[in-house]
Amino acid sequence: QDQASGGQGGTRSEIRIVGSSTVFPFAKAVAEQFSINGANPSPILESTGTGGGMSLFCAGVGAGTPDIENASRRIKPTELELCQTNGVTDVVEIQIGIDGIAVAQANEGTAFSLTPVQIYKAIADRPFGEKNTAKKWSDIDPSLPNFAISVYGPPSTSGTRDALTELIMEVGCVTDSATKALKDSDKDEFESICHDVRADGAYIDAGENDNLIVQKLKANPNSVGIFGYSFLEANLDSVRGIPVSGVNPTYEAIASGEYPGARPLYIYVKKQHVGVIPGLSEYVQEFVNAGTRDGYLVKAGLIASPDSVRAKMSEVVRDMTPLKPSELK
Amino acid sequence: MQKRIAKRYAAERRFKAIGMAAIMLSAGFLAFLLVIMVGNGFRGFTQTELPVEIDFPAVTGGVSPSQFEGANGNANIQSMGLPDIVNSSIELQYGKDGTDLFSTSGWTSVSAMILADPKIVEQKTTVYLPVTSEIDVAYKDSGTPESERIVSKYSDQLSTGFNWNFLSNSDATDPMQVGIWGAFKGSLITMLVTLLLAFPVGVLAALYLEEYAPKNRLTDLIEVSINNLAAVPSIIFGLLGLAVFLNFFGMPRSGALVGGLTLALMTMPVIVISGRNAVKAVPPSIREAALGIGASPLQVVFHHVLPLALPGILTGTIIGMARALGETAPLLMIGMRAFIATPPSGITDPATVLPVQIFLWSDEVDRGFVEKTSAAIIILLLFLLTMNALAIYLRNRFETRW
Amino acid sequence: MNDDKKMQESSESINMTDPATTGATSESGTPKMTARNVNVFYGDKQAINDVSIDVNMDSVTAFIGPSGCGKSTFLRCMNRMNDTIPIARITGDIRLEGDDIYAPQMDVVQLRARVGMVFQKPNPFPKSIYDNIAYGPRIHGLATGKEELDHIVESSLQRAGLWSEVKDRLQDSGTALSGGQQQRLCIARAIAVDPEVILMDEPCSALDPIATAKIEELIHELRGQYAIVIVTHNMQQAARVSQKTAFFHLGTLVEYGETTDIFTNPREEKTRDYITGRYG
Amino acid sequence: MNDDKKMQESSESINMTDPATTGATSESGTPKMTARNVNVFYGDKQAINDVSIDVNMDSVTAFIGPSGCGKSTFLRCMNRMNDTIPIARITGDIRLEGDDIYAPQMDVVQLRARVGMVFQKPNPFPKSIYDNIAYGPRIHGLATGKEELDHIVESSLQRAGLWSEVKDRLQDSGTALSGGQQQRLCIARAIAVDPEVILMDEPCSALDPIATAKIEELIHELRGQYAIVIVTHNMQQAARVSQKTAFFHLGTLVEYGETTDIFTNPREEKTRDYITGRYG
Amino acid sequence: MTSTTLLFLVIGLGLVAWFFGRLKAAGLHTRGKGSRSVLHSLPNYHGWYVALWAIVPATIFMMVWSFVSPSLITDAALNSPAAAQLPQGGFARGAILSEARAIAYGHQVNAFNPLSQSMVTPYREAISYYQMIGAVAALLMVFACGVYAWLRIKPDLRARTKIERVTMMVLLLASLIAIVTTVGIFLSLVFETARFFSMVSPIDFLFGTEWNPKAVAGPRGETGFGAIPLFWGTVFIGAIIAMIVAIPLGLMSAIYLTQYAPAKFRSWMKPILEVLAGVPTVVYGYFAALTVAPALRDFAVSIGITSASSESALAAGVVMGIMIIPFVSSMADDSIAAVPSSMRDGSLAMGATHSETIKKVLIPAALPGVVGGVLLAVSRAIGETMIVVMAAGLAANMTANPFSSVTTVTTQIVQLLTGDQEFDSPKTLAAFALGLVLFIVTLLLNLIALRVVKKYREAYE
Ligand SMILES: Nc1ncnc2c1ncn2[C@@H]1O[C@H](COP(=O)(O)OP(=O)(O)OP(=O)(O)O)[C@@H](O)[C@H]1O
Ligand SMILES: Nc1ncnc2c1ncn2[C@@H]1O[C@H](COP(=O)(O)OP(=O)(O)OP(=O)(O)O)[C@@H](O)[C@H]1O
Ligand SMILES: [Mg+2]
Ligand SMILES: [Mg+2]
Fold first, then answer.
1. Domain C3-275 superfamily per CATH
2. Which residue intervals define the domain ABC transmembrane type-1 in the entry (chain E) (predicted)?
């Protein structure tokens, strides 16, 4: 066994990053900044999706595996477990900011406002256990406009979709006490009722980070889009946010937690690579620094984490404190 | 009877017209596609600029041009703090928020200017720097109200210039700074690997199958595999590349080597199939002639059949390569869908290719990327049309008639 | 690839039947090539049925017979060109100067250099006239230098009666010649490797009368230097160029003898019918 | 595509030369087809040189001559099949019952229905036997109903002597028949559109002797009902089936006359040489 | 001596061997019977025979050596005193060693890790020691094998036959790559597929009609992994809509070009049409999504189909159809050209017009070939990913409405593999199952196409 190759082919001089397409643009901006003066080699940044990235990240330690994983959701216990069986014992978790899930429509569309329950009733497969029959928004609530439900949202494989189910649908779903009770008695049934999205055409799977979605909303002014906040911000000239529970999806509303759809974004760092791959800790530091209220990531559409979280993250980055499986509940 | 004849002739004319219409429609689609792409894309080659006057002696306090000559020039520019020099000049001219008008890395073009002609650091010079992508979009087309306001404010100063950076830079976050050179080079290297692997293997396999293969199970199996591989969805080749080259052989991820290997597997069947047709088209009388004077089967093939079939094989190869050049899906699986800011310099360096770059840019949030995407498409189409023209040239030049 | 193809019954079949019965003759000198009890099958179909024949050095042998009777098939067995047809199978014994040409140790490449072939359609290589002729000597290493090669090319073209017509344009493509010239080029190409036997399969059927006359004249001149076998549909041609004639019918050798005998006084009824145009 | 192709010199060339000099005869009845001073060019190359000939209703006319002499070319001019070769160009005058077949108002589609053609290689369509025969009547609208069509098919097959062999398998593919049957099927197909002239280009050269005999017999039977022109390489065949023979050489009509005269007492030296096998 | 220089040296020595082999054979060359040489093969072949013997074994040895020697070198370097300070085990140790090695080889100049510098010297020593061994052994092999082969040169050595046998092996190996690739594809899909089927029943997967992957099974045990809508979408876009566009256009283009067009027009038009097949699919995708889809939607709305969505099966299908026009037309072209011209002449001689001949004789006769070509085009269309990703959306609808959004198998594969789900969840593994099923489907399509084409070829032979 040749130890110089470490089983994975030696060392390398540039950082390798994989993972979520949601974090990708932010990571890209950081990577560019990180190498701007030629001080560091430009990191190689792949958009593989969180899951695909995890499987690469957790494949082992060494030059052949990535150093950082971008994630639009938290690492799963099973994934952490796999990491550890493959020798990736120390994984550092850093929350780099927040992504809002904006509900939006074209500027030309009839303005209206929604609540989580209404959204849940509109897009769930079996709202409160009954097959969804609502065809128009007014079928759900007479106060809503009288046009067909047509929602462009993330596909079931996406992290944005997970956030949508957890942050909006489940919130709407647990307003019913009977359903809420299921959570403890019959977890499977609960998840099925609260998380499953209808498949009869009212909810349309669309890519998440896709310019086309704006075109589609513009083309169908009466349809509703659900996507990342950064996307809304970049296209404010053609789409506008729909208030949820009366709160508009604005930076402040999401940052303060007032707006319901907000999810944290993470990066995971392989601690065993720190000090071996040149520039790794500097890159992570840059990422954390860039995520402040007036950092360039916020200009690019990221929402800065609350100060408390940021303080904690600074500590984690300084000490490179590994994530403990117990923290994942 | 006469009426019947007239009707038959009318049908004849109709049929012929339909045929003509079909051709015209197909060619029309192509023309339409090209016109749309060129129409969308040509603006990607230009950038909107504002003039900035830099009084070098004043802001730098006087530096000698000689230090920017030679190998250390770049390093010395780094150390003199050029971004600040440029920013302060901008602020002088456009006020406190002036820097917000300009693309953040506009100073790199100043740096390039200094390197090209170090003397300018002794004078007061006016440089044209690219504006931000919002203003660029607003100036060329229509943008946010805010940027439209800026455009009308500076309308007499704004101008468009050719965006050389687009040809020499690589991927970036700012649409004003992106370029296709990195992806172009990646495509070039990947294609080279593909060609070097797929061409010999494809030609040898075609010769074997057409000239020597005995009629047996193995030959049938090879034949079916090749025909099937030519039709297997490309994404599946990506999965194969992932499983075999990356996971099994442990080759470096995202490299042109793996991309080239994967595409070679995809291209090889196309070359084999077209190669077999070309070999088949060589008249058997040539083979008999050679055999008849005592050439061995191998001599027959390498002295006579292969040279005669080569133009046909080459055209097939170019068609296959053209397809590989435009392929995206398999490369997503092997790590070439990546942000890579440095052009690759070897087959194992991380690289991306033109179609992947197009795909990535088409997914970008920033509106400035729309025209860059189309511009990259134009480059890719030019690449392809060149290859196609080469194929046609070869076909016409070397076509042998018997 | 077919090096290992060999005769299934070679050992026991030699001299099993008396050649006289089928008309094989050996009166003038020792035969150059001998065939005994040759059967050829294409898949299940038998194309040649128990043919025995001798080919002599000093005479031109003509094969005649109606279409599909197996003339070409038999001819192609004589230099193993049939090896290239995967479904062709041959039994019996064919010898060139006593060597079994289907024996495993026989090198088919060398055999074909010794037994040359000229085809129905002229098939020059799409190369220069010079390279057409020089190809054979090159692959067989017959010339050690440029001069020797030049010499071979020149003498072959001269013997084929083509030298005067092409000597000024040896670098032109062989395919640019007229049909008759192409056929003579092919004959010159065959001669260039210094063969012992030349097989010709309807060499004139694609040519006009004048070119045909030239080729017939050439055959006359080559007689004695090579054993020549010619397949033809044209009985007058057979009568003109050959000294011996073999008449094939439905895969069997009906009659073999002196050309004059066959044409004036055939022994078999079938031969007479064919000669007089009753069929075919 | 070539509908507008027409004769360049049609008007002035009629009757310019005396047919008698080239042997065109008109002794038995008015000729069905007449050709005067026909020249055919393939690109720059002249394939037919000033040929004049008459074809009669009550006799079979044979065209003989060495390969490439223009027999097929001339035959194909007679129903304008040469129109399909883009580089072919024709001058002179060919008339069918007095109508100039190259006149602009002549409809080539109807012409070909009146002048049928049978080719060297049997070329049945890959359809059923029934559909092969019914094809012509259908496109020309010769039958108004199913019965009438059935009737045409049956009578055509009967006249071609094929009915008894295929009547139980009219729905089998035409390509499944043997070579000789296929050729008779093609003849039946030509008969089905009720032509006035039937042109046959070496109809037996791909057939075995037995099938050849059947076709020759059929030609005998059809004589008198149609004007028949047959191209053949086989002089015995010409002698057997035809009443008149035309001998072509290098694109010119050397001699045209009664078959018996041509074969026993040719006027021209060239004809004699060819007949006796001096060349070709 | 680095391995590259060694390789060049060996090749150079091989050329020398070629020269000597040739020389000896040429010396043996005397005239035997007639002008024929007594040599069985040309001197050249003898040269190659010796050269191959000299090069091939040594090269194989060098390949093996390059696998073995690195660990020998590292072991030797680790035995040096400097190695004592290295961290124990782990990536850090490996990285230091590999950095030191890179510096020792001269691939890298500066060390990122200061410890590496101390290991450079031991590495240099070990490297030169083992390289020496390797070089000496390789050169010895070149000489031994070369001389052995050289000694075997005799007039009756069948050098040409031997060289040809080697070449033939190379040819065979080249064609075996196709089989290896096929097996590779199968193997790279089958394990993950098996894992997927241990979670989701194959019956549900293959025959389920709802594609809406769920984390947990629903009340009636439905998992949402019914692949039928995906296959329907694939067929709808690739085999129905695309073909409705491509078959008439392709077929009529081929007919016009082969039967009516003047040669000049044809020689221009054919390559122009072929460009359609060469345009990258991303470009088509972009075109479909931004130009065709909105136009079609506006059209649909204007004729009163208000439910039309801007990502429609029609947009993707039409663009895909345009893309495969050349596939259909060139296949049709070939098979129409393969119909013997005697068929055409036969029909024309009956008094049929050109179009009647084409419609009633040529097309029916060429039909099997055309069908074979269409099947191949279909398998290309159903494998197409990018156009659908960009233009047809992701909604797995079982609908025959061309204005609604559908999705295809390959699109879903991309989506599943680049999604955010954990990699061992059925949602990710389903991609492999889809891939395998698709692979099998194209295999079957191809077998059918081959059969059809073969049968039709036989019809004329
Ligand atoms: N490659 C082949 N495969 C199968 N059968 C063949 C092959 N070549 C010839 N035959 C058959 O073998 C028989 C003899 O054919 P051959 O070509 O030897 O005849 P021939 O006398 O040369 O005829 P022709 O005068 O027409 O050239 C024929 O029945 C023919 O169909
Ligand atoms: N399509 C063509 N293009 C060019 N030249 C042609 C074409 N068809 C025939 N020729 C030439 O016209 C001349 C007469 O040919 P034609 O086929 O009429 O001869 P033939 O008497 O029928 O010969 P055969 O007995 O071999 O059939 C020949 O020199 C031939 O090369
Ligand atoms: Mg023959
Ligand atoms: Mg002819």
1. P-loop containing nucleotide triphosphate hydrolases (3.40.50.300)
2. 232-449
